[in-house]
Specification:
Elements (H helix, E strand, L loop, with lengths): L19 H11 L1 H21 L5 H8 L11 E7 L2 E8 L2 H6 L12 E10 L6 E2 L7 E6 L5 E7 L11 E2 L5 E8 L8 E2 L5
Length: 197
């Protein structure tokens, strides 16, 4: 029995409805291991998705964006250019990456008459040098000023070493462009327009 003015004993009292916090706390205790497993799976999937969008080697990814692969080098444009009375079909090295790669890792000129190195400005002959590192066949290089006149030319020998161990070749005067051809195949004369182009 209870005394007047007092409610029923605790064991007979109606429980108050659980609030949202108590429900979530109760569920989280009951399903803690399941929630942890779901969290782990979600984290794992997010890591996989993040990694799938990132290359393993960013150097190769950047190079492929510019048309480069480790095996074949950059993708070069091509043009016809007159040298003296001859018209040469050349590949064009017109970016720092392409100029640095040049004719490396090739056994021949791939059906072209040579490679044109375009700088877009006058280059200091004391600071701009060429090496034959990893070039497998001998070349002749000609240097041309902004008017297209040849200011120098020299033969270059293949070198299996690195840029720092191979000999470097340069011009005796400042230049704006250079053309590499197989040794002895560089025509005499200035840069001109090809006939009919």
């Amino acid at each position: 029995m209870t005394e007047p003015g007092q409610g029923p004993p605790e064991d007979l009292a109606q429980p108050a409805p659980a609030g949202a916090v108590e429900v979530v706390t109760g569920l989280s205790k009951a399903y803690r291991w399941r929630l942890a497993a779901v969290g782990f799976v979600v984290a794992f999937v997010l890591i996989l998705l993040w990694g799938a969008n990132r290359p393993a080697n960013p150097t190769f990814a950047d190079a492929s964006n510019t048309g480069t692969t480790a095996a074949q080098g950059p993708t070069f444009g091509e043009k016809k250019i007159g040298v003296g009375s001859s018209c040469l079909r050349v590949q064009v090295a017109d970016t720092p990456e392409k100029r640095a790669y040049g004719l490396r890792n090739r056994s021949d000129d791939h059906g072209f008459d040579g490679m044109l190195f375009e700088f877009g400005q006058t280059m200091n002959h004391d600071k701009t040098r060429f090496t034959m590192s990893e070039v497998k066949f001998p070349l002749t290089i000609g240097f041309y000023n902004e008017s297209g006149l040849r200011v120098d030319a020299t033969d270059m020998a293949p070198c299996a070493g690195s840029d720092s161990t191979c000999p470097s070749y340069g011009s005796k005067a400042n230049f704006n462009s250079a053309i590499e051809t197989p040794k002895g195949k560089l025509p005499d004369g200035p840069l001109t327009a090809c006939p009919g182009s």
